[in-house]
């Protein structure tokens, strides 16, 4: 249905096709322009939504992570040594976490961008983070060292939200922004440092560090340093300088020395490897510096970049305008040229249609009827011009003249061939009649069976030669001289036809009704049946039989010839029937189908 609908709207005329040809580049350019415009608008929209997400989601998530990390360290110290100072410190950390959680919820609720636009994972991770925040009061009630894992899971849920936006931030990052994956890795490195602070702070407050805690502390130090080293290499120069300023200062070096001392002291002496004041000052300072550097790397590029600047839109806009102007100009020029071309092509079309539908078929019919035609009058020669259209017109006239000359020559050759066929066939027929008479006399005088068998073979070959001679006469349009005055039984007609076949011994004659064939058509019926039987014998396996039978039907007698051949495909059978039915399709130069042409002539008598 769709293909038929497309076929109905397809341009038919030359004028319509030329107009469509001229409109294709314009439409193509407009489509490209629309695609570029939509792509630019989508890119601007994506960057705007990403900037909004950085303000309403990522920045509150970062502050929330820092607050939870601070509360986790305070909880560990309070659980190890629940004195008044640690209790005050914990209450203060919890208030900061509550403020950060409210700011996080406000940012999620106030954001106008659907979180599902950034991928299917982000809504799920935000929902999981909010459920973890809702479980914070129950986590605080534990007030033991085991709450470390709960706080760590809450931080991981918050960092998972940042990770869900990493790929989107990488694709739509403003020019000059650091890789989002590197910033996410640095946030993970900050979380590892916060875990170190929580582990060592609890050990320092309690005066002991279990072996498992010491092993985790040592592994966390190694992981943090490797993660920071790899991530710093992927930052842009400005963000890298901000991070290195934090990591290369005296405080960071003091932190590194303290970490090495704690690792080297072992579980028993780790709490005494450094003072609580020195550790807290260096760890908190580095943590705060990493947090500020991360927030700056996240928000600074979006704040400094203007997506509507001329550098972003000016070049593309000018290119689109100039492209449209060029297409309009070319359209005006092409319309003038196309109009003249349409006039010439329409005239050429009318001339070609008149040649194909009227002039050439009429001349062919005249030649087929044996009459002469004046080629110079029907198709006067034409001198080609310099343009292609006039050259095509001259070529059409040349083709017409060549076709007429070829048809005239072919008609002349066929007429001469027909005369030769008739002359040779008549002479052969006379000689073959005389030879059959001599053979009949010899057969009556010979008594030896061997000689008589040889004479029968010669008689059979002569009969076949007579049939081929009659085929020449039939193809030439004449009537064979052989005939009968009185009606002949159909059985004798069938036997005479079988006798003219080369491999007649394979043919069996079945039941034939007692009817008589008028003498005027006996020769044609014998010839026709012989051609069909010989075809059946030739195209069937040599060890099989061919059966000829006849039955009475309502309008006469039906003669059936049955063989065991492979048969013909439907296309070949239809083509053979067309050759028999259409008298105009007889081509005497096609020697491979002379049998069909003989049947054609006989069928049209």
Furnish the topology, listing elements before pairings.
Blueprint: H1 2-9, H2 14-80, H3 84-110, H4 121-134, H5 136-142, H6 148-164, H7 166-171, H8 180-206, H9 211-232, H10 237-247, H11 250-269, H12 276-304, H13 310-368, H14 375-378, H15 388-445, H16 449-475, E1 488-489, H17 490-499, E2 507-509, E3 516-517, H18 522-538, E4 546-553, E5 556-562, H19 570-581, H20 594-603
User: What is the helix fraction of residues, given as a range?
Assistant: over 70%
Spatial strand order of the main sheet: 2-4-5
Largest sheet: 3 strands, mixed
Radius of gyration: 53 Å
Quaternary state of the chains: single chain
The percentage of residues in β strands lies in under 5%
Unreliable stretches: none
């Amino acid at each position: 249905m769709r293909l038929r609908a497309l076929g109905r709207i397809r341009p038919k005329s030359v004028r319509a096709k030329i107009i469509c040809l001229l409109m294709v580049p314009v439409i193509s350019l407009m489509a490209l322009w629309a695609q570029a415009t939509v792509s630019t608008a989508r890119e601007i929209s994506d960057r705007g939504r990403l900037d909004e997400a950085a303000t309403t989601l990522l920045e509150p998530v970062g502050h929330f992570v820092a607050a939870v990390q601070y509360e986790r360290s305070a909880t560990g110290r309070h659980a190890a040594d629940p004195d008044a100072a640690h209790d005050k410190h914990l209450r203060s950390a919890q208030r900061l976490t509550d403020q950060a959680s409210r700011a996080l919820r406000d940012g999620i609720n106030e954001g106008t961008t659907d979180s599902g636009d950034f991928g299917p994972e982000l809504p799920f991770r935000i929902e999981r983070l909010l459920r973890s925040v809702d479980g914070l009061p129950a986590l605080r009630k534990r007030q033991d060292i085991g709450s470390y894992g709960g706080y760590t899971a809450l931080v991981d849920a918050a960092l998972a939200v940042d990770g869900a936006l990493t790929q989107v931030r990488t694709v739509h990052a403003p020019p000059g922004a650091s890789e989002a994956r590197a910033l996410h890795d640095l946030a993970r490195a900050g979380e590892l440092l916060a875990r170190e602070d929580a582990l060592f702070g609890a050990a320092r407050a309690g005066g002991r560090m279990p072996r498992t805690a010491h092993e985790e502390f040592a592994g966390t130090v190694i992981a943090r340093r490797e993660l920071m080293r790899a991530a710093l290499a992927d930052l842009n120069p400005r963000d890298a300088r901000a991070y290195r300023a934090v990591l290369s200062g005296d405080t960071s070096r003091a932190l590194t020395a303290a970490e090495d001392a704690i690792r080297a002291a072992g579980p028993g002496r780790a709490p005494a490897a450094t003072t609580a004041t020195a550790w807290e000052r260096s760890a908190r300072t580095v943590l705060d510096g990493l947090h500020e550097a991360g927030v700056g790397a996240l928000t600074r590029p979006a704040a400094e970049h203007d997506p509507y600047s001329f550098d972003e839109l000016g070049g593309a806009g000018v290119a689109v305008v100039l492209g449209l102007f060029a297409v309009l100009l070319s359209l005006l020029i092409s319309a003038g040229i196309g109009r003249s071309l349409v006039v010439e092509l329409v005239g050429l079309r009318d001339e070609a249609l008149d040649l194909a539908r009227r002039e050439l078929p009429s001349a062919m019919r005249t030649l087929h009827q044996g009459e002469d035609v004046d080629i110079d009058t029907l198709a006067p020669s034409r001198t080609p011009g310099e343009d292609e259209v006039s050259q095509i017109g001259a070529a059409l006239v040349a083709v017409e003249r060549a076709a007429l000359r070829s048809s005239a020559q072919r008609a002349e050759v066929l007429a001469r061939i027909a005369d030769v066929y008739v002359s040779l066939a008549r002479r052969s027929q006379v000689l073959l009649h005389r030879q059959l008479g001599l053979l009949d006399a010899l057969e009556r005088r010979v008594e030896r069976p061997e000689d008589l068998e040889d004479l029968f073979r010669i008689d059979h070959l002569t009969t076949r030669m007579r049939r081929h001679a009659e085929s020449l006469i039939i193809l030439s349009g004449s009537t064979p001289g052989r005939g009968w005055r009185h009606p002949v039984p159909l059985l004798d007609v069938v036997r005479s036809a079988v006798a003219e076949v080369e491999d007649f011994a394979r043919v069996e004659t079945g039941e034939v009704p007692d009817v008589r064939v008028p003498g005027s058509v006996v020769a044609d019926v014998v010839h026709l049946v012989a051609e069909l039987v010989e075809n059946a014998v030739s195209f069937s396996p040599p060890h099989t039989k061919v059966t000829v039978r006849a039955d009475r039907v309502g309008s006469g007698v039906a003669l059936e010839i049955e063989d065991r051949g492979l048969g013909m495909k439907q296309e070949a059978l239809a083509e053979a029937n067309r050759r028999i039915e259409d008298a105009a399709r007889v081509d005497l130069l096609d020697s491979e189908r002379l049998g069909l042409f003989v049947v054609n002539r006989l069928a049209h008598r």
